[in-house]
Amino acid sequence: MQRLAGPRGSELILDLTLNGNPKGLVQFGLRDGELWADAATLKQLGFVLPAGVSDPVRLASLRGVDVRYNAQRQTVAITAGPEVLHQERTVVNTNDVPMPDANASPGLLLNYDLYGTEGNNSTSSLNAFTELRAFTGKQVFSSTFLSQGSRTDGQDWSQHSVRLDTTWSRSFPDEMLTLRVGDTTTGALAWSRSTLIGGVQLSRNFALQPYRTTTPIPAFLGSAALPSQVEVYVNGMKQYTGQLPSGPFQLNTVPGITGAGNAQVVLTDAFGRATTLDYSLYDVQQRMLQQGLSDWSVDIGAVRQNYGLTSFDYGSDPAASGTWRYGVNNSLTVETHAEGTRGLITAGGGAGYLLGTRGGVVTAAAAQSSYEGRQGSLFNFGYSWSSDRFNVSMEGTRTQDSYRDVASLNGAPVPDRSGRVSVGYGADLLGSFGVSYLYLRYPTQEATRYVSAYWSRSIGQRGSINLSLNHDLNDRRNSSVFFGVSWYLDGNVSTNVGVQRDHTRTVYTADAQHTAPSEGGWGWRAGAHTGDDDLNGGSAEVTYLGRYGRVLAGANAIGNSRYAYGGATGSLVLMGGQAFAARGRDDGFAVLSTEGVPGVPVKLENRLIGTTDNRGMLLVTPLNAYQLNQLAIDPMQLPADVRVDRVKAVATPTDRAGTLVEFGIRPVRSAALILVDEKGEYLPIGSNVRANGQGGSAMVGYDGATYLDTLEDKNVLEVQTPNGRCVTRFDYAKSGNGIPQIGPLKCVKENSR
Prior knowledge:
There is one protein chain. A hairpin with a 2-residue loop joins β15 and β16 (about 235-245). This protein starts with a helix and ends with a strand. By secondary structure, it is mainly beta.
């Protein structure tokens, strides 16, 4: 310490603030009105000292350092520039969201989709798709079936039923893993093909943490001279607000855009000075993974054959596959895939690379197969890029020799050549247009080559024009051009007129429709088309979407064909000891209970969705699985003689399952009491009332009034008044739905009983 102060100086312990950030108590020396510090202390604080500097260091001798010493408060404020002060980068992840605890209550669900037709010559058909689902916790069992019946020319009905998929799954949200046993689809990459198997699959499942971002996210880098408020704007919309200490910072945030855009980071320091930093954003697509993140799938089983035709037809040879992707860094993602069965082994790898912030994503892959001694190769290349107006995408795959995969041994062969190229442009004045080219060739077959183009433009706020062209380069007879105009009317009614020309004929169409509102109601559609005789006709359909499902009916007449049709979709849920009818359920849901209290309004995300039934239950749909779904009830609609633990709750169901939500509503025996003394006068205000020797108490108000909600059939009240303790007894009786008023009750002093 004396070394810091020198022979005539003083030793100080000061409260240090460095670039606005508090650092606590630090040792200094004061010589001739200037502060000195130990070199080791300064290095520990982040100072970069010049070579050969003396020790101790006179702070004023450091370039770019401003020292403000307050002797009265024993504080010192030091401001230093980045050339002399090195500070750790502050990393702020604005997309960090706590993972909600999802669960499902035991239950059963039956989804159904029914459809029937009645046509010419007594031709009829009936089709029914059903799914039976059982769930509890994080486990789901599901089995789907398809039944079909038909009759032609009044003959007897022919019927066919088939089981489609049966699967048991168990999810592990913390690890983002799902285990599936039964019918499942193997994992695949953009350059490989998936296969339907009956077996076991263990795979990464990012849907179990829907708030997590898996693709590389923009990182905004900068430096704040002083502690500052930071605001992030993406395409003019605020995405984040927070606080930063002084020094370099890194903001990791998720832009609310798709494609490309611009971002601004606004720093406002303690003096109110604002600095704006501009950045460009680029959508890196789903083929890229964040640094250190992996995505994988392991599958083993028997290949499903004749799917949709027979219920239990599996190959005799086991098949296995594995898929893995890994984000090496935010610019490079590598991937690999391997699969095999008896006599076949196929393996390959690839990568996706981000060419800078606006250069696009390039992908490449290669694979090798060996089947019964014959070798084959696959090569894949792709590139995609987009800006706020342009977009380009291309991808091509080529196989050589006898390249095979598991799917080719049980179905369609691997194409020899395949490719696609698309270019698009969008502008407010010119509209959006683009062109694309598709090439596909299978072994021993002629290549399929298509060129298509489109153009669309809005007309004011309600209309749009569309023009599209499809041209078959091999057979111009398959080419067509379409021009249409759409217009939106009041009442959610849309109209469309169009004309389509192919090789030999022209067809004119016109239709109007009103889509049923998502909250429920009627919808309809009517249309007509004319051209050649076999194309003249029209169609009409009416739909009703209700709380319990959707029903539809319609008729169609095209040329000599006439038929009517009808259908219904919905679901039945058994949960919480009660059955519910609802719309078809492919996502999460909840059964809400108000403990037997009927007619209670329920809101989902501040939107009224229904009221509880006569048993105090309501099926709430749809909910997002593994996400925070805010439910609330209106306490003003509850009876006066109930107690509710909460009026808001967060429901987080698991995938394709339901959760039971309770608000802790309990009936209570409550009453408004009037208490008087032995002379019939009201007990004093503020007297303390205790019922039946229980903990807790109530206070006496004006005119001897008090309220208690812990009463029993027979009650003893002890009242502590300013004049002493008194006791009263009474029986509880209720009539009607309101809170009973009891009294006046005479409270007798203990010493006078």
